[in-house]
Write a structure and sequence with these properties.
Elements: E1 3-14, E2 17-29, E3 34-38, H1 45-52, E4 60-65, H2 70-75, E5 79-82, H3 94-105, H4 109-122, H5 138-151, E6 156-160, H6 168-185, E7 188-193, H7 196-202, E8 205-210, E9 215-221, H8 236-251
Parallel strand pairs: 3-7, 3-8, 5-6, 6-7
Antiparallel strand pairs: 1-2, 1-4, 8-9
């Protein structure tokens, strides 16, 4: 099991009183799965991702990542994290941005160069290594961010709405590229999104969350083929899963403020 979440709750203490972010979350994610977390703003999707990454600490309950605690997994660099914004340093070239975590790890120059080359090829940016972030489109910047996350050779990829700020055409293209990348690398992926079509197109399982305090309302298994093109979104099978996700969001009162 790649990730196991058991009876997990998180309450933030604020000046206005406690905020109950997550309540009794139970979730298992198998190795090689592509799992999307979907729900309304404030339901705790990103918070759950940050708990898995050891960027937040739970109030109660437990998480294991490949049998270890989130802290042990973070120290072992068992995961790569892709944020909503590409978060590239503008004064570093693309290859040097991708190499940054490898420099921190203390890898020698030859190993860094090989990993950078390999991962830029993986995201179709081989010809842009010496460009600066401001010379690339938003979609290309996010692909560079994914290459940087993959450069540490993690088994797990955590992705927090990486395509949310992009236009629909670019987003569709990157969704297809991400599926190809997943097929090539066989990583376990946990992906946060607000988009029903994106969640259904990408995922083997879709976790539907309800508003704060965040709870899991439904877990939907997808029987769609792993090789997927955008035309799949017009099929009855795709539309049936999307309908179930939408109904789950409605039943969880996801459209209420």
């Amino acid at each position: 099991m790649a990730i196991a979440v058991r009876d997990l709750s998180l309450t933030f203490e604020t000046a206005d009183g406690p905020v109950h972010a997550l309540d009794r979350i139970d979730l298992e994610i198998a190795r090689g799965d592509f799992v999307s977390l979907i729900g309304p703003s404030g339901c705790g999707k990103t918070t759950l991702l940050r708990l898995i990454a050891d960027l937040e600490q739970p109030t109660s309950g437990a998480i294991t990542v490949d049998g270890a605690s989130p802290r042990e997994a973070r120290i072992a660099r068992a995961y790569g994290y892709v944020f909503q914004a590409a978060a590239l340093f503008p004064w570093r070239t693309i290859e040097k941005n991708v190499a940054l975590p490898l420099e921190i790890m203390g890898l020698d120059r030859r190993e860094r160069a090989e990993r950078v080359r390999r991962n830029l090829e993986l995201v179709d940016l081989a010809g842009f290594a010496r460009k600066y972030p401001w010379q690339l489109s938003g979609g290309m910047q996010q692909r560079a961010s994914i290459a940087r996350a993959l450069a540490v050779e993690p088994d797990l990829l955590l992705m927090d709405e990486p395509f949310g700020a992009l236009d629909e055409i670019v987003r569709d293209h990157l969704n297809e590229q991400l599926l190809h990348l997943w097929a090539k690398t066989e990583k376990t992926v946990v992906f946060v999104t607000h988009s029903i079509p994106e969640a259904v197109f990408l995922s083997t399982r879709i976790v539907v969350m309800s508003p704060r305090p965040g709870r899991i309302h439904d877990i939907i298994e997808s029987d769609l083929p792993r090789r997927r093109g955008l035309d799949l979104r017009e099929t009855p099978e795709f539309l049936a899963i999307a309908h179930r996700v939408r109904e789950g969001l409605r039943a969880g009162h996801s459209y209420e403020d």
